[in-house]
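Researcher: For the annotation table, I need C-alpha cells for RNA-directed DNA polymerase from mobile element jockey-like. Please keep the output clean. Sequence:
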Amino acid sequence: MKIPTLSNRRVRGDLITTFQAMSNKSSPIRKLFILNSHTLTRGHSFKLAKEKFKTTVRQHFLSNRVFQQWNSLPEEIVSSQSTMAFKIKYDIYSSQ
C-alpha cells in the first residue's frame, strides 16, 4: 500500500519544522538551530552545526535528531520558497 512508516513520518515532520524555523527569522525555535559557520562546507548554505551534549536527554532534541537528514538534503529542497513547496520537493526526493 506504500504507506510511509512511523519513523519516516517523524523525520518528515522534523524536517518541515526545521524548514519553517530556518525560513522564518522571527520563529521562536530558530535559536535551537546553530548554522555551521565554516564557509567551506559542501552542499547548501543552511548546514547545521553538530551540537555537543553531555547527557542523552539532549541527544533526542529536535536540533540533534534532524541534524544528519537536514544536512544531506540538496540545495533546491532547502531553499524552497514555501512550506508546501518544501513538502512536495522532499516527498519526491524521499521516494527515489
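Researcher: And a one-line annotation?
Model: The CA atoms of residues 60 and 96 lie 27 Å apart.
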